[in-house]
Amino acid sequence: MAKLTIENLFHRELEVSDLSKSLLHHLHSHGVDWMHACGAKGRCTTCKAIVVGGLQHLNAPTAPELRYRQEGLLRENERLACQTTLQGDVCIRVPESGKLPHVQYSP
After folding, report:
1. Predicted confidence (pLDDT) per residue in 52-81, tens digit
2. 10 Å Cβ neighbour count for 53?
3. 69 three-state secondary structure
4. pTM of the model
5. Does 103 reside within a domain?
6. How many structural domains are present in the chain?
7. Cα Rg for the chain, rounded, in angstroms?
8. 104: confidence class by pLDDT, cuts 50, 70, 90
9. How would you write 77-97 as a 3-class SS string?
10. Among the four residues 59, 76, 90, 102, which has the most C-beta atoms within 10 Å?
11. Which domain holds residue 89?
12. Does residue 77 lie in a domain region?
């Protein structure tokens, strides 16, 4: 069991039990609308999440994430929600580029 906190969604906390599923899966299964465009295949960066805390509780970066880092499209504290699994408590933020117009965000 792990806790996922979304800092700029009013510190919304999600309890995650199946640690084999992706971060994107958990967000959607808890009703959090999170941007994604390529069908969770790691082919784009639209599902990017900024990791505020607990980076050590995530799986190692995947090949697509490493490629995007080399291309300068993903920073060390950013992960693709479709490629990332939790292994413990993590706090993330929605990046400006991933904010949806119909969702209200907190500072």
Report:
1. 999 999 999 999 999 999 999 999 999 999
2. 13
3. helix
4. 0.95
5. no
6. 1
7. 13
8. very high
9. CEEECCCCEECCCEEEECCHH
10. 90
11. 2-9+12-98
12. yes
Long-range Cβ pairs for the range 4-8 (8 Å, 24+)? 4/86, 4/89, 4/90, 4/91, 4/92, 5/89, 5/90, 5/91, 5/92, 6/32, 6/91, 6/92, 6/93, 6/94, 7/52, 7/91, 7/92, 7/93, 7/106, 8/93, 8/94, 8/105, 8/106, 8/107
CATH code: domain of residue 34? 3.10.20.30
Give the model's pLDDT for residue 52.
Answer: 98
Q: pLDDT per residue over 26-41, tens digit each?
A: 999 999 999 999 999 9
At residue 99, the pLDDT reads: 97
